[in-house]
Write a structure and sequence with these properties.
Blueprint lengths: L9 H24 L3 H13 L1 E2 L1 H8 L3 H13 L3 E5 L7 E5 L1 H14 L4 H4 L4 H16 L4
Antiparallel strand pairs: 1-3, 2-3
Helix pairs in contact: 1-5, 2-5
Length: 144
């Protein structure tokens, strides 16, 4: 099949590459742990950063604050995170993992380290690093 002008579009190639990545995430994370990609990302960011403000999460994830609040409410209801006032600035709210959330984040990290091996096997280690670096460059220059 001819793909016409699609072959020169980054979005087309990202969409095609996301098919195996989405399937892998669904079978290793979503179906097993009952969390979606955004929730996974939030838990992973909180594990890496200990605590973040909702504003920082909103900016990094490019999600409007009201939508993020709904997601944080859902994760808090599942007892995966807590929201507290900053001791340094009482006007500021902080988000951090609960003990349950930390345990889940550790499991997720363990699974995520190898879940994409089947996808990466088609690239050399050098090609993998080049691809990740190029995608980081594109993402770095996004407008938020």
């Amino acid at each position: 099949m001819e793909h016409g002008s699609l072959v020169s579009l980054l979005g087309y190639h990202l969409a095609q590459a996301s098919i195996p990545a989405d399937h892998t995430f669904k079978s290793h994370i979503q179906d097993v742990f009952k969390i979606n990609k955004l929730e996974f990302t939030i838990l992973t960011l909180l594990q890496a950063n200990v605590e973040l403000t909702p504003k920082r999460l909103s900016t990094v994830l490019n999600i409007v604050a009201p939508n993020l609040t709904l997601i944080l409410d859902r994760l808090e209801k599942r007892e995966l995170l807590t929201r507290i006032q900053s001791e340094h600035d009482r006007r500021m709210q902080l988000v951090r993992l609960s003990k349950t959330g930390l345990a889940l984040a550790q499991k997720l990290k363990s699974v995520s380290l190898s879940m994409e091996d089947n996808i990466w096997k088609h690239l050399t280690p050098a090609e993998k690093q080049i691809l990740l670096e190029l995608l980081r460059k594109i993402a770095h220059h996004r407008k938020t």
